Amino acid sequence: MILLNCTVYDYENFIDKAYLVIESGKISQVGRMEDLRDSLKDKHDVIDMKNRFIMPGFVNCHTHVYSTFARGIPLKVVPKDFRDILEKVWWKLDSALDLEAVYYSGLVAGIECIKNGVTTLFDHHAGTAISGSLETLRKSLCDVLGLRAVLCFETSDRFDVSACLDENLSFMSKRNAKSLGLFGLHASFTLSENTLSRVSEVLEDRPIHIHVAEAPVDEKTSVEKYGMRVLERLKKHNLLNENSILAHCVHIDELEADIISESGAFVAVNPTSNMNNGVGLPNTKLLRRHSVSFVVGTDGLGFNLTRDLLNLFFTQRLLLGQGSFDLEDLRRAILHSYSLASTLFEKNIGRIMPGYIADLITFDYATPTPLSEENIFAHIFFGVWDRVELKDVMVGGEFLMRDGNLRVDQDEIFSRSRRVCQKVWRRMGL
What we know:
This protein folds into two domains: 2-56 and 360-395, Roll (Urease, subunit C, domain 1), CATH 2.30.40.10; 58-345, TIM Barrel. Helix content is 40%, strand content 23%. The protein contains 15 helices and 17 strands. The strands form three sheets. It has an eight-stranded mixed beta sheet with strand order 3-2-1-4-14-15-16-17, covered by helices on one side. A five-stranded parallel beta sheet has the order 9-10-11-12-13. A four-stranded parallel beta sheet has the order 5-6-7-8, with helices on both faces. α3 runs parallel beside α4 and α3 crosses α15 (410-427). The longest helix is centred in the C-terminal third of the chain and has 19 residues, at 327-345.
């Protein structure tokens, strides 16, 4: 396949009036239209992109697909604090999920990922229907929709811990080109010493995916019950392996930032969710001071990653001051997400150059001011992300959306999802 007449930008390189060749799911050539040989066009299907921009698809580094069924939920109480939010919303919801609900949450969330340009997502799943839940998510997200997904089940003392361990280990043993597993844990304050020891016994050198210090209660509980902060506790149990994902880290201190830096783990910040829950905001200045790589997620509060990228930029400038966070810091966070995905999938992801997987998005953008290599990211940030309207989404060289049309029947899926959601809400007593 050859894509002609496009503008290529991958957060590193910018080529105007470009073409690219995709073979066997990978980019094999990128160049300027003026250098394209006619003989090359004779060997491939040719698509005229009509001056669309082409960029790598986004990586959502922390989300909760099952939160699909929280949208519009008719709550009978108003949560007062973070613990209340968990107990009266999320823990009631996940206890009402069966595998049918898990499947349709994956389809709905996956469709919204595609429409928002997310081609790889890291999901943190929970629920009382433990066995087979990750395979069910893989079926909807990867097999049906074609997305790339990194999945885990959140081990917690709320659940049958043995079943949690089995589900994580089973799924981690079945990786393929589109999906793989991390070892999921909920948060320190729902994990006993015995549970962490059991995880440590089976984890070996594999990465974990866990919530860390999202709200003060996590650190407070850890200090009061165990005499140490959350990251100290995880380190004590040898759980902080390289490429682990530590979601939030809003309330960590200098010592904990050092521990993360030494471990090679990534912090996944989720500013929109943090604001919604009223728990505070991540301090990226602290993370950068300790050379901690941070990436961005949505925490299940929708699946539009650009909203969190925008909110990260603006909240950090408010929190830290005008000169303390700029577009270069945001660009590095995006590049870190591609580095993490590339390492875990053992594929080159996130660049538009030969040898990289063709996980791509396209869109139209009329530039009202001059466009150059020096200012293109500012155009993307202030012009494109303000209202994301994608035309095409591709994973591994296959179109998941073409000219705005999905390859699945969204109306039918959403209709069935509404019926499934009604059953979930009834099981919640709503």
